[in-house]
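Project standup — Tuesday

K.O.: blocked on the structure for the chain from last sprint. Re-posting the sequence here as requested.
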Amino acid sequence: MSRIAPLNPDALCQSYDSLHFSFATTADLEELPGIIGQERAVDAIHFGIGIQNPGYNIYALGPAGVGKRATVRSLLEQQTRSPSELSDWCYVNNFKQPSRPRLLQLPAGRGSKLCDDMLQLVEELRAAIPAAFERNEYLVPLRRIEDDFEEHQHKAFARLAKEAERRSVNLIQDPQTEQFSFAPLKDGHPLTPEEYEKLPKKEQARFESEVGVLQEHLQEVLDMHIPQWQRESRARLRELNSKTASNAVHQIVTTLMDEYPDLPQVAGYLEQVKEDVIVNADAFRTPPETEDPEQELETPGSLRRSYQVNLLVDNAESTRAPVIYEDNPSFVALLGRIEHTVQYGTLITDFTQIRAGALQRANGGYLIIDAHKLLSQPYAWEGLKRALFAGKVHIESLAEQLSLVSTVALEPEALPLDIKVILLGDRVLYYLLQEFDPDFAELFKVSADFETSLERTPDSELLYARLIATLVSKESLHPFDHDAVASIIQISMRLVEDSQRLSMHMRGITDLIQEASYRTGNSGRDVVTASDVGEAWQARIIRHSRSRDRLYEEIQRGTVMIDTDGAVVGQCNGLTVVETGDFSYGAPTRITATTRLGEGEVVDIARETELGGPIHSKGVFILSSFLGARYSRNMPLSLAASLTFEQSYSTIEGDSASLAELCALLSSLAGIPIDQSLGITGSINQLGQVQAIGGVNDKIEGFFDICRQRGLNGHQGAIIPAANIDHLMLRDDLVEAARSGQFSIYPVSNIDQAIELLTGIEAGKENEQDLFPEDTFNRRVQARLAELADIRHNFSEPAHRK
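H.V.: unblocked you, prediction finished:
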């Protein structure tokens, strides 16, 4: 038997030597002008920015902390635009259809000017219009209209009075009530009632007949002629008022229109303003209810409010395309909203209460949204897609869209969109959207995939040092010496769990740099050293290690049963990783197996109790396939086996324990005990080959900590896949223990190597007859399976033989 040799201690951690660096501190390094290690993502973002065809929005995918948002924002903010390319957007009153406010597009900076000009216009009209109605040019024609009406009325009543006199009747007008009555005349003198009663009946009848005729003529004047003359007077008055108002308004509005000769939209709006002012000139002749301009602007229906300009988007101060990050991408936050005011218990609104959303503010530029936040907001994703497909934004109430209210609402003119939307999210969400939302592929055709690690080369190491210098400068931290930079690079390799790569998880690196600088400042020093970095790293672990320490304590007390010496049949120490938030640690777990006569089934107790995930279940199924393929090719697999993680009360997922499970299962079959001083991790395939797993450093260190607390005896160690050697970045104390021969790391490539390490017995190789050599481990397993097959065969024979 050729026993697998433990790894050389130098292979357990790729320490980084600061002698590679020629600088003293990060202050000597030139800052990075851009982003390193994300060339693929940066190229994709540049492509998405440059192409102007519809649907080429960007989805930046990668785990949290790799700097997606900072990178995207940095690249977008480099996109400059001249002010002539930017626009202001305004909503103004639609005087003909107030429920459909008009949208005006103006060059950047001219929207606020139009707002001021319109407020000034109202003030000028308030002064000019009343003055125009006090001039002789208005008063003389007004008196003429009044005199003409009076003259028509006087002549009509004069004619009626003469006619009455001719009929011996007197027309009388009461000066107080201005009502008319008729009285009979006798010899040119009105008769008193007593005198009238003394007249002959025939004479009275004649008078009554004449009065009846005159009454008809009077009624004709009152009901027909006077209303007609009043209508003519009012028409003349309206024409006079309109002409007077027009003369007063024309010059003022024309002067304002001359300020916008290049904007026909504004000219058209001002023409409507002029028409509306002429029609409502009387409102300008009435003093305002309040002298406070701001209060008047808040009063619905006031003059200032009616002619106010609602500046929805103001780009007056912008020198580049807007870059907006919407932290709360709700439906209204994205598409805008229409506010309401309570007046006399009723909700009212107008064009001045339209508010911009992120789409309007980012129009002409870029909108950045977190994909998870967007999809968690009701109807926000559908609203965004609808706007992008239509190429314009309709501002509408979500309640009205869902028909939850029936009030009359505004229907503002839609704002045309010229925008790039960048979603930030993880890879899983990206692939889910690709699979289940056909609109997603139409709208987000560019994927910017961010790397989580960077290949470690001399050039990339120097770039990484410059990256650290850039972060130090950006955060205004103490400079780091070359040893401190080397220490961060080594921790970066540990974070990515690969000695050949560097972590691009910028959030974790930035946090570590800040914490190390904080310790330096507390010590009264000006330069961060490697010891500061190490202390900051250890302090972070201590802050998060409460649950780990309690678990280790329970193991030492025997509450959680873990053996680190001796040998037991069907039992081994599997190495697992426990994740608690952003902290992970290794912990051994006892894996046991039992075997008996059966029909070839391997029972995974975790799966049967719904505590096993699908990947773990897959690993167990592979075990039964391996057993049949290796040991029972020519006979039925007459085995019933059960596997479990002892004292495990949470969900188990992953196949990294399948090698340990197979070893326990084979030990139970062979009846050969397994050395409990070794922990084991690795994934197994159907051919018996050991495959790489994740979290190898945490797993080894977790078992090492348990062994160290109990006392290292020189026999303890860990078995890992050979494919994980390049991933080893173990702690210094563990490396020293390996160097002194107190703890060993064994790399294996197949199940036979693991079995020989765990049992000390040669595994054995099968011959041409598919038999393993005598006195080998595999022969013991094969013999036991053959024995079980014979027992099963004997049980299946008829009870009575001939």
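K.O.: great, moving the ticket to review. The domain at 560-794 is CATH 3.30.230.10 (Ribosomal Protein S5; domain 2). The chain is about 45% helix and 15% strand.
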